[in-house]
Amino acid sequence: MLFFFTEKFYSTFFCIFVANMKNLPFFAQNLAKWYQISQRDLPWRNIKDPYKIWVSEIILQQTQVKQGLDYYNRFIARFPDVKSLAEAEEQEVLLHWQGLGYYSRARNLHFAAKTILQEHNGVFPKNYQAVKNLKGIGEYTAAAITSFAWNMPYPVVDGNVFRFLARLLAIDEPIDTGKGKKIFTQLAGNLMDKSNAGQFNQAMIEFGALQCTPTTPDCPICPFADHCLALALNAVANYPVKRNKTQTKNLYLYYFHIQDVFYTYIKKRTEKGIWQNLFEFPLIESSTPLNFNELSQKEVFQSWFPKNAQFKLVVENKKHILSHRIIYATFYAVTCPDACKSIARNDLTKIPVDSIGQYPVHRLMQYYLEL
Ligand code: SF4
Questions:
Q1: Rounded to whole angstroms, how far apart are CA atoms 148 and 154?
Q2: Distance 185 CA to ligand 1 centre (A)
Q3: pTM to 2 decimals?
Q4: 77: which residues sit within 8 A by CB, 6+ positions away?
Q5: Are 85 and 111 in contact (CB under 8 A)?
Q6: How far is 75 from 57, CA to CA, in rounded Å?
Q7: Which of 28, 87, 156, 332 would suit a FRET pair with 113, their CA atoms being 20 to 30 Å apart?
Q8: Which residues are catalytic?
Q9: Residues 366-370: contacts with CB within 8 Å, 24+ apart?
Q10: Rounded to an integer, what distance in angstroms lies between the CA atom of residue 62 and that of residue 332?
Q11: Alpha-carbon distance values, 168 to 15, 17, 27, 277 (Å)
């Protein structure tokens, strides 16, 4: 029947459908049935500890479940509760996050754990607004924590849920606008089985992650196939709609691994950004590619290295993609006839070669160190 919809008719249909959505109990029932059979066995499932739910949600924000699992287990083993996390040194927290990327997540977790310890006597606040006030926790994470831990009826709308709902109802409203977010959140709230909010939210996310996937949704065996407008319109690939395609910029990083027999030199990244407080080799950054000759003309290069230093190209243009940047990293090994003794700069920290593992480093540094 849905194949006969014209676009004009569709928008009218959509309004009626949304308005009547709460009269469609089959949705929540079908979803619950699917979830019971299909859900993955994950350590943060079926638990009620808000701290562990919080940690898992923060890890999963920018990380696939497969990669996040080991990190979650290691993190929880070392920091099993709010107190242990709040009392840890930031450097140790970052070391446990090393390789996951988006390190502000770890810094915010640490900061918020301290807030809970100081302002809530170490007890996770059982209140949506108080949870949302914690650093690094937005609407989505607050809804996830409060619904998973205490069954509070806040809809959780992540990329999986956006995609599933956008396709199910062929919603043309872009998901990356304030208006779009409001519509989808309302819709998820209307569909929600309020008596079982936590499980409903988890099932919605899982459905998008396993069934209604970005590129290969399993429509032939989908329990909603008979009601899915995008499928009926043969337009599954057109949903969800996005207004702003993220602008990505190229960034070229040139690292210098100084090999002073027993020592090397690192630098703490203090400026605001995703790698804040992580350590890296001396670096020259550029928005355009630079050849070695151009690098050696740089003032900072000349201030670091004596004229007789020797440079060996080890890694060239290693690509690393972030949400808003494409990074190309090049690493040079630096040796000097006098063991680089003349490198004694305040902006660099001299460390014994075998102690580098004690310093949290970002993904690219980790890649180089594991070569
Ligand atoms: S039929 Fe396909 S596109 Fe529609 S909800 Fe199911 S999996 Fe997603």
A1: 10
A2: 19
A3: 0.74
A4: none
A5: no
A6: 13
A7: 156
A8: 57
A9: 366/98, 366/99, 367/315, 367/318, 368/255, 368/257, 368/314, 368/315, 368/318, 368/329, 368/331
A10: 30
A11: 14, 11, 11, 43
Q: What is the helix, strand, coil percentage profile of the chain, to 5? A: 50, 15, 35
d(CA 127, CA 146): 7
Cα-to-centroid distance, 33 and ligand 1 (Å): 16
**CA–CA separation, 252 vs 291, rounded Å?**
11
Q: What residues are in contact with ligand 1 under a 6 Å CB criterion?
A: 164, 167-168, 211-212, 217-219, 222, 224-225, 228, 230-231, 236
Task: Return the closest-CA partner of residue 347 out of 291, 260, 284.
Answer: 284
Q: Please give the DSSP secondary-structure letter assigned to residue 134.
A: S
Atom of ligand 1 nearest to the CA of 163: 8
Question: Can you state the angle between helices 197-210 and 139-150, rounded to 10 degrees?
Answer: 120
pLDDT in tens, the chain (371 residues): 333 344 444 444 455 455 444 445 688 999 999 999 999 999 998 899 999 999 999 999 878 888 899 999 999 999 999 999 999 999 999 999 998 888 899 999 999 999 999 999 999 999 999 999 999 999 999 999 999 999 999 999 999 999 999 999 999 999 999 999 999 999 999 999 999 999 999 999 999 999 999 999 999 999 999 989 999 999 999 999 998 766 789 999 999 999 887 889 999 998 888 788 899 999 999 999 999 999 999 988 888 888 888 999 999 999 998 878 899 999 999 988 765 655 556 678 889 988 999 999 999 999 999 99
**C-alpha span between 211 and 219 (Å, rounded):** 8
Contact 87, 14 (CB under 8 A): no
